[in-house]
Amino acid sequence: MGSPSARRTAQISRNTNETKIQLSFSLDGGPLDLLPPTAEFENHESDSGSHHGPPEVQTTKTHASQITATQHIWIWTGVGFLDHMLHAWAKHAGWSLRIRCRGDLAIDDHHTTEDTFLALGTAFATALDPRTGIARFGHAYAPLDEALSRAVIDISSRPFFVGDFGFKGPMMGNLNTQMIHHGLGSWAQNAGVTLHVDVLKGENDHHRAESAFKALAVACKMACERVVGKEGEVASTKGVL
Q1: What is the pLDDT of residues 96-119, one digit of tens each?
Q2: Distance, CA of 103 to CA of 109 (rounded, Å)
Q3: Pick from 32, 38, 19: which is nearest to 97 by CA?
């Protein structure tokens, strides 16, 4: 068993015919090394920095990057609004997160969004293993102007997702609004969590989505907190999660 104070981290590569994803993740924030060079992400100067692919240089500041003393966040999926939501999620959950993705955006945003959430769910589950000494349950409300959302999470190893977002339009930027529900369901499946996210009110779809991800972030942070004096203990009557 690792030290109770050791950072909980994961590195994921997920390659399919539809997407190529590299991801580095820390539940506890802190510095992250640059993603290592691979054939999928090197020598693409013709589309570097475009919507087709991430910038070659990971120190390039993007619309979803934020490097501080306590967090490293650098995200590029090719779907701008998705990047924005992942940035908010990581920031308010206290995570450090590096993601880059090359997806089949010539088709649409579906595979890129789905596979990014699947990879992030796998990273979350890997970093939490073993699921001992944690609070397990988390809940939060988060407003954004007129919008208000609630998120409740159980790190249960029983994947289940219920979401109610009530978006009024079909798109936010280049992200299909259906993909927020589908993406979070995909994340819950691979993360091994029970998750409920509800947008309670709001007129603006951007505000509705962002308040939902911020509520989710705070709920995740609460559920993943280490409980002093409970090191090595499983928060379940079954004795296993």
Answers
A1: 999 999 999 999 999 999 999 999
A2: 8
A3: 32
C-alpha angle 136/82/200, rounded to 5°? 60
Pairing between β-strand 175-176 and β-strand 137-144 as defined by DSSP bridges: unpaired
Angle of the 178-191 helix axis to the 205-223 helix axis, nearest 10: 10
8 Å CB contact between 150 and 141:
yes
Residue written as token pair 């709001």? 202
Beta bridge partners of 125: none
Which positions ≥6 away from 133 have C-beta within 8 Å?
A: 4, 226, 227, 230, 231, 232, 233
Task: Give the Cβ contact number of residue 160 at 10 Å.
Answer: 13
Phi, psi of 159, deg, nearest 5: -65, 125
Q: What is the pLDDT of residues 182-221, one digit of tens each?
A: 999 999 999 999 999 999 999 999 999 999 999 999 999 9
Is 0.85 surpassed by the pTM of this model? yes
DSSP 8-state code for residue 33:
P
5 pLDDT tier (thresholds 50, 70, 90)? confident
